[in-house]
Write a structure and sequence with these properties.
Order of helices and strands: HHEHEHEHEHHEHHEHHEEH
Number of domains: 1
Helix content: 40-55%
GO molecular function, one term: oxidoreductase activity
Distance between the termini: 34 Å
Keywords: Oxidoreductase
Family: Belongs to the short-chain dehydrogenases/reductases (SDR) family.
Pfam families: adh_short
Radius of gyration: 18 Å
Largest sheet: 8 strands, mixed
Number of helices: 12
Length: 326
């Protein structure tokens, strides 16, 4: 059988069609599935191509209802289940994980897609900087708590955890462990885009360290979806930061002078689906994908630092008070 060929313009449906046999019957949990976002596009496509159960999440019940209704309208036979989850709150993560662990179904694919808005400095109820909490610590706790459901995936399928990172991880010097543990110390010099880049660097490191520690029981992957025009930029604070950087205009459209090769949401979601279902990736667990294929060359050196990956993991376990049980 020939290997499918993908490009920058490949869509979620095109990639899902290529891996329809892998998607069919799989149970998938996707965080951050608001309308017009990458998570929603991912959920829509895997549901369309026969996923067994698609669990969608959102911070509020109102957002979830909109996404669930839209999915059911387009794919009437889809098995959609909605889950309230606020990754900025460790209490919410624990509550949501307990609900999932009470489901009768196992989980084949966990997609950590949800991300914080790029905003001025603020702390979560648990005392963490908001972006690192939402993009890293919350997903880290969720993944650890859901390991029993992932490990219950039937043989010979190996469960996967996909972390939606970003090419922007290269815009920083890497994760700052002290800043994660003592966020107040850096409040005066805080830069929202730098915090975003560090959180995305943490995603890449976590995918690598998860894979190393799991020793084949669970496979981790990280992806850059590319520069995508989604609802992410509709948040007032994020829009202000992106305007300041000259990435978008006042009406939210991409700036003509920006060198990014912009993607649509279906094009951005394509790489997420490839990470979740491309069977060839079992040979390279822990890798990074861009444009729906493995592309480790695009990972900045600081996000390939396996010593830092281990240190980040140990700090994260201590901060969320959970030791992974593979």
């Amino acid at each position: 059988m020939s290997t499918p060929t993908f490009s920058h313009s490949s869509t979620a449906d095109e990639v899902a069609a290529a891996f329809a046999g892998e998607i069919r019957g799989k149970n998938v949990l996707i965080t951050g599935t608001s309308l017009n976002g990458l998570g929603f596009e991912t959920a829509r496509s895997v549901a369309k191509f026969g996923a067994g159960l698609v669990i969608i999440t959102g911070r509020t019940r109102e957002r979830l209802v909109l996404a669930e209704d839209a999915l059911r309208a387009e794919i009437p036979g889809a098995n959609i289940r909605a889950l309230v989850l606020d990754l900025a709150s460790l209490e919410s993560v624990r509550t949501a994980a307990a609900e999932v662990n009470a489901y009768p179904e196992h989980i084949d694919i966990l997609i950590n897609n949800a991300a914080s808005s790029i905003a001025p400095f603020r702390l979560t109820p648990d005392g963490f900087e908001h972006q690192i909490a939402t993009d890293h610590l919350g997903p880290f706790l969720l993944t650890g708590l859901l390991l029993p459901k992932l490990r219950a995936a039937p043989h010979p399928h190996t469960p996967r955890v996909v972390y939606v990172a970003s090419g922007a991880h290269a815009w920083c010097a890497g994760v700052d462990l002290r800043a994660i543990e003592h966020p107040r110390e850096g409040e005066r010099e805080y830069n929202g885009m730098q915090a975003y880049a560090r959180a995305k660097s943490a995603n890449i490191l976590t995918a690598k360290e998860l894979t190393r520690r799991a020793r084949g029981r669970v496979l981790g992957f990280s992806v850059t979806p590319g520069a995508v025009k989604t609802n992410f930029g509709e948040n007032d604070e994020t829009r202000a930061e992106l305007m300041r950087l000259g990435i978008i205009t006042a009406d939210g459209t991409p700036t003509s002078g920006v060198t990014f090769d912009w993607k649509t949401p279906p094009q951005g979601a394509a790489t997420i689906i490839a990470a979740g279902f491309d069977p060839a990736l079992t040979a390279t667990p822990g890798c990074y994908l861009a444009d729906s294929v493995q592309n480790d060359q695009r990972v900045a050196p600081h996000s390939n630092d396996l010593v830092m990956a281990e240190k980040l993991w140990e700090l994260s376990e201590r901060l969320v008070e959970l030791t992974y049980a593979f």
